Amino acid sequence: MHISLLPISLLVARALADGAAIVAAMTTIGNATVKLNSTVSSFPDNPLLDLLDVGGLLTDSISLLNDINAATHIAQASANLTLLEAISLAQSTISLASMVESTLTNIVNSKPKFDKLVVVSPVILLNLKSEKSATDSFGAAVVAKVPAALQATAQNLLAPIDDAFNSAIATYGEFAL
Ligand SMILES: *[C@@H]1O[C@H](CO)[C@@H](O)[C@H](O)[C@H]1NC(C)=O
Ligand SMILES: *[C@@H]1O[C@H](CO)[C@@H](O)[C@H](O)[C@H]1NC(C)=O
Ligand SMILES: *[C@@H]1O[C@H](CO)[C@@H](O)[C@H](O)[C@H]1NC(C)=O
């Protein structure tokens, strides 16, 4: 009896750790999002090309992209999540979605600043597309681990993130050559 219980308790422990690992990865993404957002906010509103500012923007975008890709690997390697883990993940998703939406709104509102430096907006468009695609992969990897009965709900929680990306990409895409 004890012997047959052991693997089950190990499985449960592993599942709990996996859920926590995904939540931690989402916190990392949230932090990277806030950092990018603040770099966008402090981007100078003058037409002189400042390589340091452009560099900061790129560094933050790339580090966000890396964090999202790392989170996807964590989710893919995860065991199926328990109901409790899925609920805790839902809370993290709602909070991350609001950070992402707010940051994308800021990026859209800041477009006039970036348009003054001809090279910047097309680069932002490319980054937005990479980030959306990475986010979609991450979302799909997480949804696949959520209990089947909650998968549709999980998709619904992710939908606003996708909408916000699509709208930001449309705004930047209008001016693409
Ligand atoms: C995220 O940021 C918060 C607040 O600045 C910090 O306490 C936390 O350690 C950071 N977490 C990660 C995973 O970077
Ligand atoms: C992003 O920046 C804008 C403008 O500075 C601010 O209003 C908003 O609260 C910020 N959002 C996040 C998630 O940091
Ligand atoms: C994980 O859940 C999926 C359904 O979402 C199911 O198809 C798969 O068999 C489950 N895997 C394990 C190891 O239980």
UniProtKB/TrEMBL annotation:
An example GO CC term for this entry is: extracellular region
Annotated signal peptide? 1-17
PANTHER family per the UniProt record, alphabetical: CELL WALL GALACTOMANNOPROTEIN, PUTATIVE (AFU_ORTHOLOGUE AFUA_4G00870)-RELATED, CELL WALL SERINE-THREONINE-RICH GALACTOMANNOPROTEIN MP1 (AFU_ORTHOLOGUE AFUA_4G03240)
Q: Which Pfam families match?
A: HsbA
> What domain of life is recorded for the organism?
Eukaryota
Q: Which UniProt keywords apply?
A: Signal
Q: Which species expresses this protein natively? A: Hyaloscypha bicolor E
Task: Respond yes or no to whether keyword Signal is given for this record.
Answer: yes
Indicate what this protein is called per its UniProt record. Answer: Putative antigenic cell wall galactomanno protein
UniProt entry tagged with the keyword Signal: yes
